[in-house]
Amino acid sequence: MREGRKMTLTMLGTGTSTGVPQVGCSCPVCRSTDPRDNRLRTSALLCVDGKHLLIDCGPDFRQQILRIGSPAIDALLVTHSHYDHVGGIDDLRPYCYRPDGSFFPIYCQSDVARDLRERMPYCFCEKLYPGVPRIRLEEILPYTPFSVEGVEVEALPVMHYRLPIVGFKIGSLGYVTDCKTMPEATLERLRAIDTLVINALHHGPHLSHMNLEEALALISKINPRRAFLIHMSHNMGLHRDLKLPDGVEMAYDGQEIEI
Question: What is the Cα–Cα distance from 59 to 42, expressed in whole angstroms?
Answer without folding.
Answer: 10
